[in-house]
Amino acid sequence: MASKIVRWIALCFFLASILCVNGETFTTSNPYDSAGRNYNIDGLFCATFDSKQPLEWRKEYLWAAYCDQAGKPMGSSLCGTCIQVKNDLTGENVTVRILDQCQNGGLVLETDAFNAIDGDGQGKNNGYLLTTYKFVDC
Ligand SMILES: *[C@@H]1O[C@H](CO)[C@@H](O)[C@H](O)[C@H]1NC(C)=O
């Protein structure tokens, strides 16, 4: 009887850990330095599609790269869209514009955006944040 309960408890922890990991997105930072390069998006994946966008558009949100598709190319349809990214530990959030792609299965935020939701410094310490994101209107 007791061992059955122990097994159920173990199973519950196991399932909870899977659900927990699946809901979170591995998020790192990259020094795009959008302001320092005067919001010039040349060289980014979305430059082909969004280089004619006016300065106001390019500087409205900090930049991000999208790679939450496990190896599949992002495609142009996500270029220019916005996501709200929440630090799962602190609850802080930031809205960024997708202008680049990446391959690590998560997200890459411009350094200022990463720091904006890293209130407890764990992201800097660990080199990544676990986040939850959703697409939002820009
Ligand atoms: C996002 O952060 C802002 C403050 O920057 C806060 O007002 C808002 O409630 C947050 N939204 C969510 C969904 O956490």
Automatic annotation (TrEMBL):
Keywords: Disulfide bond, Signal. Coiled coil: none annotated. The keyword RNA-binding does not apply. Residues 1-23 form the signal peptide. InterPro entries: Barwin_dom (IPR001153), PR4 (IPR044301), RlpA-like_sf (IPR036908). It holds the Pfam family Barwin. GO terms for biological process: defense response to bacterium; defense response to fungus. PROSITE patterns: BARWIN_3. GO terms for molecular function: RNA nuclease activity. It comes from the Eukaryota. Residues 1-138 form the Barwin domain. This is Barwin domain-containing protein. It comes from Cryptomeria japonica. The lineage of its organism: Eukaryota, Viridiplantae, Streptophyta, Embryophyta, Tracheophyta.
